[in-house]
Structure formats: C-alpha cells, structure tokens
C-alpha cells in the first residue's frame, strides 16, 4: 500500500471534519444576521428624545415617525392632549394603522385592534401598545 494514500477511516474522518466546518461557517453566516435582528437594541439610544412640530398632529389625527429606531405614532384626540405610542403591534410586530373615523388602531396583519391610548380592543395582540411621555415645549412636542 502506498504511504501517501489515506485509509478509508481517516478519509471519512477528514470529510466529516470538513463538512462540519463548512456547516458551522454557513450556519454562522446566516444565523448571525438573524440573531442581530431578533436581539433587543442596545440601551445606547434608550434616553434619546425626539421633537415633532405640534402642527404635524391634527386634532383627531395621527402622525407617524421613527423613535428609537421604531415606528411610533403621535395622536391628539382633544386639542392640546397628546399621546405617543409605539406603532408596532404586540402580536407579531406589524405596523398598526390609525382609523380616524373609528378612533382606534387596526393591525392589518391579523385584525388586532387598539384604542387611542393603546389598550387592546380585540384580536390576538397579547399586550397594549407601549406609551411614551410627551411634553409640550413651545410649538414642539418632545417625546421620550
Ligand atoms: S401582528 Fe398585529 S394582530 Fe397579528
């Protein structure tokens, strides 16, 4: 037998190790972005505040914007009364829509309904929409 040839058992071990290595590399390549997407954001912007001009929020209407990297909505149900809520449905994360004629939010994915204060009115959402503090500063609304 030639000394340069590998025995079938060593060849099998070599192939197993190579396939395991390639599998681990491919798993890491696809798994890392998924893990980053699913993991909570760092607390670096947890104290961030955002300013929105007051006139962007009509009475009875909604204004959608980004806050801490997530869709957020401002409402003014009565003149001078502002509410800021996350616009991300607590069921599976779809973005809720404001229905001005009904005065409530509707999630287009599975029909979840939320009140103007974020409480669950119906459908599968397990929890209310998160509320953020809003302070009026001149003609600006400060959220956060
Ligand atoms: S994601 Fe909103 S009801 Fe399912």
UniProtKB/TrEMBL annotation:
Kindly list the cofactors needed. Answer: [2Fe-2S] cluster
Cellular component GO terms, alphabetical? membrane
| InterPro entries membership | Rieske_2Fe-2S, Rieske_2Fe-2S_sf, Rieske_Fe-S_prot, Rieske_Fe-S_prot_C, TAT_signal
Q: Which residues cross the membrane?
A: 12-32
Q: Which PROSITE patterns match?
A: RIESKE, TAT
- Keyword Lipid metabolism on entry: no
Pfam hit, one: Rieske
Q: Which residues form the Rieske domain?
A: 49-143
Q: Which domain of life is it from?
A: Bacteria
Keyword Disulfide bond among record annotations? yes
State the UniProt keywords alphabetically: 2Fe-2S, Disulfide bond, Iron, Iron-sulfur, Membrane, Metal-binding, Transmembrane, Transmembrane helix
Molecular-function annotations in GO? 2 iron, 2 sulfur cluster binding; metal ion binding
What name does UniProt use for this protein? Cytochrome b6-f complex iron-sulfur subunit
What species is this protein from? Geothermobacter ehrlichii
């Amino acid at each position: 037998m030639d000394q340069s040839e590998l025995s079938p058992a060593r060849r099998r071990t070599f192939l197993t190790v190579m396939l395991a290595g390639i599998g681990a590399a491919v798993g890491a390549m696809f798994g890392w972005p998924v893990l980053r997407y699913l993991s909570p954001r760092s607390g670096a912007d947890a104290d961030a505040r955002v300013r929105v001009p007051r006139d962007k929020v009509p009475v009875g209407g909604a204004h959608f914007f980004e806050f801490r990297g997530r869709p957020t909505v401002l409402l003014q149900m009565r003149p001078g009364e502002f509410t800021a809520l996350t616009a991300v449905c607590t069921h599976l994360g779809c973005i809720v829509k404001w229905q001005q004629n009904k005065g409530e939010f509707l999630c287009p994915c599975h029909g979840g309904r939320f009140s103007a204060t974020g409480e669950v009115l119906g459908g599968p959402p397990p929890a209310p929409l998160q509320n953020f503090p809003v302070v009026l500063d001149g003609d600006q609304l400060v959220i956060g």
